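Researcher: Good morning. I'm working through a list of sequences from a screen, and I'd like to move beyond sequence-only analysis. For each chain I'm collecting a predicted structure so we can compare shapes side by side. This is the next one on the list. No need for commentary yet; just the structure.
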Amino acid sequence: MSEQPKLPSKATFNLLCLKACIGFGGAWLFWQIAAPGFELFVYIAACWALGGAICAVQAVWHLYRIIRHERLMAALKAQGVDPKADPTATLEILRKEGLLK
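Model: Good morning. Structure tokens for this chain:
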């Protein structure tokens, strides 16, 4: 029906956000280390920033999937009616049905 994530949703979302923060933090760290004449750290920082951006987009997409799944479940739940219990059998009903004399 819908592709519900395999891990618990909150844990997956938090891990994706953590990965994005680590990516952006690593990018910032390598950018600070980069000297004007040594461009290797700039490229490394760009790769870390790209990784952080990808994880951030994945986290937003995962959050969208969670919200979409919750709305779908609420819509399916709203389609049904509340269950109605039969009335409890009283002595009058049992006598009327012929079960008691």
